[in-house]
Amino acid sequence: MKKTRCALCYAVLAVCFALLLAVSVGTGSAALSPHEILRILLLREGAGTAAYNVLLKIRLPRALAAAVMGGTLSVSGFLLQTFFRNPIAGPYVLGVSSGAKLAVGAVMIFGMKLWGCVPFGAVMTAAFVGAMLCASFVMIVSRKIHSMAMLLVVGMMIGNVCSAATDFFVTFAKESDIANLTSWSMGSFSAVSWGNLRICLAVIAVCLLLCLLLAKPIGAYQFGEHYAASMGVNVRRFRAALIGLSCLLAACVTALVGPISFVGIAVPYMTKKLLGTAKPMAVLPGCFLLGGVFCMACDWIARTAFSPTELAISTVTAFFGAPVVIMMALKRGGGHR
Amino acid sequence: MKPTLELDNLSVGYGRRVLLKDLCASILPGQILTLIGPNGAGKSTILKTISHHLACMGGVVRIGGENIERMDSCELAKRLSVVLTERVRPELMTCYDVAASGRYPYTGRFGRLTALDRDVIAQSLALVRVKELADKPFARVSDGQRQRVMIARALCQQPRVLVLDEPTSFLDIRYKIELSAILLHLAREQGVTIVMSLHEIDLAARVSDLVMGIGTHGVEMFGAPEAVFTEENITQLYGISSGVYDALSGSMELPRAEGAPYAFVLGGMGKATTVYRRLTREGTPFATGILAENDMDIPAARHLAARILTTAPFAPPSEAVLTEARQTLLNCGALLIPDGLEAHAWDDELICFAQEHCVEVRHA
Q: Is any Cβ of chain B less than 8 angstroms from the Cβ of A215?
């Protein structure tokens, strides 16, 4: 029964995923007929025309970015929840995204000043370093305090400190240096270039494969550190892999599209409820699909709801994600152990 | 027979602090070793060291003759499994899923269960008698059932040594008895060596083959339960200064009410014990008699009564004892007759004596 349910959910998710991808590519301020779109996408006709450019240089990378980054954030959230054994953990609430944002902001501003341009590889490295620093700090704190709620408060405070520091840099930076930074720091899927997207996709693909290899120990770790160790998990190595992977995933997303809130918490929870299981082998792919669906839907709303004005993506994800988190808290009765 | 588990001059502790030194023990297949002692003495530390969750601070732990520190963690998991005190709350898992997770060291990279794995899981669930719970959500079963599922999980690792840290903590009396029966069955029928810590010394005295008493000064006693569970040992081990442990019943009694006896309780055939306990609870010192020296009321009377008058088994009391009884009765304010007492001739005599001398006679 469980397997049929999982299979059914996957099928529905896959259909939604494809449908939303089509809708994202098909709608926008420039009206393009489905016929036109198919011709451009499949036959590569009309190179150089406005329609061709809109479709291949703007809409398609944007839709892909929303799909993949949403999925990636969700997986990263699931890993962090496993690590901290806390269902409300996620890259955004634990300050991991903000740490990445601060590092990226700093590198962008100083890089612009020194070299005039910043390669995307440097941005990604900075994001990873920032994410790891914040995550390590929360990790150290989590060894001292054992309350779930306090851990989140610490994470959020770190996030706030990082955001404040980013704002500080931005205030004293030259207008021209930060033109991109402001829209990026609020989180947006627009202005995603193929080149950057490709790098991210490669890194993410490798990370996700590694995650699947970790599925078995993640399952054991759901019983807690001691039980995991007693079953033969090398806990130290496993924890390092887990935190490294989740930070790398969150860093990729942050470097490409900026910090995005709530996806990392809400989606894993919804996935588990949907699939009726918490088995990592089932949850990991499910998380990715649902995260993609969630982000594409949110991005579509951000683009079209008040068109031509575009909403920041976090505005929309928060609007739909926060109620899920509140529901979660209510269901768990306040989140005490 | 070769021992399954050997502790060879083992030192245990946290960080750099050595808590207990030079532990030696060797436990045969199918034996149950129970650690008893006050909280914080180091029972859990020993269990965590045996299960290699804490590093040995000195000495060696051997399973089947092999040093556990030299074993691969997966190899160790196939020989030793644990049931811990911490409560686990795995999300959305059935009891079957929980038990199945114990197959971890045997399954491949992605944790797929083979037919053999499924057999072992079914057997383990059957051994602890929770087969019918297999499809129930783990979060929805009772504490006793959950504990048994956790034991089934541990058994799925097919261990030679099973380590349990206070397995009875959350259980009510019914589940405690069931759990003990299951552990005994595992040891006797499956030959699993069991090492556990228990708070309930009465339970420990009944299920263990070997008992290690760990007090504030380290290992204070080690051996067969008959040798360990004496009144002096237990009183010393737990530092009991008020009240006593009764070795025969394996239970404890409150400290006796001090002072001159205020009531005289007739007794015999165990009918008076509950009256003794009630008087002690109320803080009333009392005398009791005349009890045969082998009467069931004797153990409680020895611990609780301010004064006891006894007679040899199967013999009426001597005139001297009777006189003493009368005298004691005169100094008491009341004579209590326990419910259901089968009065002897001398009891009737004492009742008459009390009535004659205006001592209140009450049924209790």
A: yes
Q: Give, for all 337 residues of chain A, the pLDDT tens digit.
A: 678 899 999 999 999 999 999 999 888 777 778 888 888 888 777 777 888 888 888 889 999 999 999 999 999 999 999 988 888 888 888 889 999 989 988 888 888 778 777 788 888 999 999 999 999 998 888 888 777 778 888 888 999 999 899 888 888 777 766 666 776 777 778 778 888 899 999 999 999 999 999 999 999 999 988 999 999 999 989 999 999 999 999 999 998 988 888 899 999 999 999 998 889 999 999 999 999 999 999 999 998 888 788 888 888 999 999 999 888 888 775 444 4
Q: HSE, CB side, 13 Å, CA atoms: give it for residue B331.
A: 14
The answer to whether A232 contacts B77, with C-beta atoms less than 8 Å apart, is yes
Q: Which residues of B touch A215 (CB under 8 A)?
A: 110-111
ipTM of the complex: 0.84
Facing A223 at nearest CB: one of B72, B74, B90: B90
**Cα–Cα distance between A263 and A267 in angstroms, integer?**
6
Chosen from A227, A237, A277 to mutate, greatest number of chain B CBs within 10 A: A227
Asked if residue B224 lies in contact with residue B211, where contact means CB atoms within 8 angstroms, the answer is: yes
CATH 1.10.3470.10 matches A2-332 = yes
A280, B101 contact by CB (below 8 A): no
What pairing do the DSSP bridges indicate for beta strands B17-27 and B5-14?
antiparallel
Residue B69 contacts residue B49 (beta carbons within 8 Å): no
A211, closest residue in chain B (CA to CA): B110
- On whether the CB atoms of residues A50 and A28 are closer than 8 A, the answer is no
Distance from CA of A272 to the nearest CA of B (A): 8
pTM: 0.85
Domains of chain B: 5-240 (3.40.50.300), 263-363 (3.40.50.1220)
What is the secondary structure of A187-256 as a DSSP string? --STT--HHHHHHHHHHHHHHHHHHHHTHHHHHHHTT-HHHHHHTT--HHHHHHHHHHHHHHHHHHHHHH
Contacts with B293 (C-beta within 8 Å, 6 or more apart), sequence order: B310, B311, B312, B313
Picking from B86, B88, B101, the nearest residue to A219 by CB comes out as: B101
Find where tokens 């490709």 sit. A198
Q: Where are the alpha helices (DSSP H) in chain A?
A: 2-26, 34-43, 50-53, 60-84, 96-115, 120-144, 148-172, 175-185, 194-213, 215-221, 225-230, 235-257, 263-275, 280-304, 313-332
| Contact at CB, A278 and B91, closer than 8 angstroms | yes
